[in-house]
Task: structure prediction
Amino acid sequence: MQSGSGAPSADGIWHSLRLLSHPGAEALDVLDDGVIVVQDGSVAWTGLGSDLPSRYAALPRHDGGGALATPGLVDCHTHLVYGGQRANEFAMRLAGASYEEVARAGGGIVSTVRATRDASEDELFASSARRLQTLLAEGVCAIEVKSGYGLALEHERKQLRVARRLADAFGVTVKTTFLGAHALPPEYTGRSAEYIRMVCEIMLPALAREGLVDAVDVFCEKIAFSLDETEQVFRAAQALGLPVKLHAEQLSDMDGAALAARYGALSCDHIEHLSAKGIEAMRQAGTVAVLLPGAFYTLRDTQVPPISALRQAGVPMAVSTDHNPGTSPALSLLLMVNMACTLFRLTVPEAVAGVTQHAARALGLQHSHGAIIVGQAANFVLWNLQDPAELAYWFGQRPARTIVRQGKIRIIDSTEAS
Ligand code: DI6
Ligand code: FE
Result:
């Protein structure tokens, strides 16, 4: 695995590809004899080999050998930067405790807050970098990273700074999301209103001023923040010109999705308990539904998100790891693709669009990521797979053969490199 600076340039003609340049939720249309031309790290041209314009003829050639090629994957919901781990809670849940019970017993998010506050920025960078590398090796080229385990200005800043450093160090697109309203920190017990005021008036404006915030999220839930508190945070985000997203209707229907849609949310995430009203509001607002099967699986949830209603309404569905130490210690986006099909009954094209085009849209990156787009930085993956359905079918494989990220060649599977 190569990090940011030293990786070789991907410039040249990538030919003999079976090219899936724009994964659509309806069908995965593969172009045989596909070509991607990369110049100065960007996609200069893409299409059929027989149509390749002669002006590119002198560029170096990279033989795809008939490999399936897709856009780089996008993991649009993660809590990647945190201290410690919570394997003890896994055992508690196996013994019968619910997520809410674990949280009420002083575990849960707040225990990760302690470990995150105790960690230095460099320690957080080192532990997050290891996790990021695992995701990147599978073909992730853009990732969202949330704060929300600091819950105090200096510690939220530390998390977001680590996210920015990861982007530079690994040459990967990172979108940062401020999730100061993730849980009530222990020092604010019984003073939720005061904490939210601090989030809106102090933390968010300061971090936004420092250029650390690309979007704002809230955990709207009975064990977290109310609808009213959520709206206060959204208003503060709006005043700063920042887009919002929401952890909505994961454990109960809080009517959060409709509120988020009113604020033009990029996405509503989890949404197991999403109502018909919420779906209609999301449809009207163009809000993406982000499905998180890793959390559903870990919590042994039984309430499946309303997939067929979302499909019928034409709400774009994305799929993500929700990587976090409590409810989704998942470091494989392709496993989430498989689970989205098996547990949520997504079709294969829906699940693949869910980690490419629709995931990009959930981050406001649809004009640069999630498809192979002329004029944008080259982010694509060549796979050791025949059929695009294999992206959803296998689990536990590392099928990426070659990864081009930000115009550079990041890995070449040693069995394929010659
Ligand atoms: N929903 C989740 O699934 C995670 N955060 C959230 O708002 C859980 C975070 C944790 O348990 O640490
Ligand atoms: Fe989450």
User: Anything to note?
Assistant: DSSP finds 15 helices and 15 strands in the chain.
